[in-house]
Amino acid sequence: MAMAKLLCMLVIALLGISMVATQAMAKEAQYHLDGGQYGPGSLKSSQCPSQCSRRCSQTQYHKPCMFFCQKCCAKCLCVPPGYYGNKAVCPCYNNWKTKRGGPKCP
Q1: Which interval of the chain is the signal sequence (predicted)?
Q2: In the chain, which residue ranges form alpha helices assigned H by DSSP?
Q3: Whole-Å CA distances, 62 to 2, 3, 52, 54, 65
Q4: Number of domains in the chain
Q5: How far apart are CA 45 and CA 96, in angstroms?
Q6: In the predicted model, is pLDDT for residue 64 greater than 90?
Q7: Phi and psi at residue 103, in whole multiples of 5°?
Q8: Would you state the pLDDT for residue 24?
Q9: pLDDT of residue 34
Q10: How confident is the model at residue 67 (pLDDT cuts 50, 70, 90)?
């Protein structure tokens, strides 16, 4: 009986910690997206290589990622935050499609 109470209290504590951590990460992510450094026209063309290097640093297909990212950045003057996703921040980057209809920008 005492073991069941202890286990229940442990699960509740872990759930509470998880909720607090999730809220903290959500606030941090919102801060990064609202920081004003992303969005259409937020970059100069000279900033594209460094931003694409950041964007493509986690992929195993580094060369194609860099090629298409720099092409997209030159057109849109914007690279989304993070290594993957977040394309809604940069509509031009998000909406540019290949001939087959897939995403052109990584």
Answers
A1: 1-26
A2: 2-33, 48-55, 62-76, 91-95
A3: 55, 52, 10, 11, 5
A4: 1
A5: 18
A6: yes
A7: -70, 135
A8: 59
A9: 44
A10: very high
